[in-house]
Amino acid sequence: MNDLLIKKTTDFFQETFGDAPEKIVLSPGRINIIGEHIDYNDGYVLPAAIDKIICFAFAKSNSKQSKIVAIDLNEEFEVDLTQEIVLSEVVWTNYILGVIKQLQDKGFSFEGFNCVFSSNIPVGSGLSSSAALECGTIFGIKELFGLQIPKVDIALTGQKAEHWVGINCGIMDQFSSVMGLENKVIKIDCKTLEYEYHNADFNDYSLILFDSNVKHSLMTSAYNERRQQCEEGIAIVKSNFPEIKSFRDCTEQTIIDLKDKMSHDVFRRSLFVVKEINRVIQACETLDNGNIELLGQLMFATHEGLSKDYEVSCEELDLLVDLAKAETAVIGSRLMGGGFGGCTINLVKKGQEQQIKDKFSKLYKEAFDIELKIYDVKIGNGTSLYEGAL
Ligand code: GLA
Q: Active-site residue numbers?
């Protein structure tokens, strides 16, 4: 599947610019097994890069002008690197403008480039196509102009670009897009950026994503609001218990003891965060010792918290998780990513995948008159140069 994408992208580059590209970059989307909305709360997360990617073809333009073509959107834009970089009204261009701006602000010097890209990461499904776009662009510029940018800094720069575009995200998406390894999930300590790989071995179960095919527009403002509420929560904790530095130092009781000092929303958000941090620690153990049934239960518990306490679900995602709960063949399910639409991630008994897919598609269509989209997940490598034959 990706071979075709690579060929399409390089052919398009050749037709558009008359020469073969100098560098081909592949940059993946991500899934997250567990640990939602805790990357910006100093917690741990357990994501992985997937085999759905953006393919980029790059070459120097030998001028200050850069031209970037989005094949799938049939759109292109130009940017003059000597001019001040400002936000545009075309959303996708901002991720690229954002990384150019961040690299310039960090003092990296580079010239104009031509770029063509095409993707098979579904957009708006919570698979972080924007992180793939940011990290792939940074990687391409780095390779073209020989910039020294360590991998973790690629992720941090991508995250800053995303902030510039308007969502005050954590580090999970960019980190997993850059650091992904085939068949491994990454446990990231979002406070220190230490990380370790764990085998993505789900025994008798397959990972399947059910895409609700909805994207509620609240996402950006609600996301930033959740982040603020958590900042308020931890500030209250710290002022009462000065020895506590972050949510990971709290027990559930710490938050419960402060209930009267917090608004109802801040209380529920804070309690969710403390519980979710502990679930990730447990989830890593379940993966290591093969107790996948327990992992499934932790995922259901995460969804419950995201829906009731963190309030980032929606009726479409809740229905998908309820359908999963009613099936013995599905041992875990939860909304994945920021919420308000996008996918649920599910552990489905091997051999029963098709039956579950058919049933969910039918029931989902009956409930909302929306087609359910379904993705089988393969865990792939992080952002890298393609060095195969063209
Ligand atoms: C979005 C953000 C991430 C993370 C998730 C929720 O994907 O970009 O940083 O906060 O939501 O876990």
A: 173
Query: Position 303: which residue type?
Result: H
Closest ligand 1 atom to Cα of 338: 11
How many other C-beta atoms are found inside a 10 Å radius of the C-beta of residue 144? 21
In CATH terms, the superfamily for domain 205-377 is: GHMP kinase, C-terminal domain (3.30.70.890)
* 22-79 pLDDT, tens digit each: 999 999 999 999 999 999 999 999 999 999 999 999 999 999 999 999 999 999 999 9
Query: DSSP states of 190-231 as a string?
Result: TTT--EEEEE---TTEEEEEEEEEEE-TTHHHHHHHHHHHHH
Looking at the domain that runs over 2-200+380-385, which CATH code has it been given? 3.30.230.10
Q: Measured from the CA of 172, which atom of ligand 1 is nearest?
A: 9
Per DSSP, 372 falls in state P
Distance 29 CA to ligand 1 centre (A): 12
What tokens appear for 44 in the block?
A: 């741990």
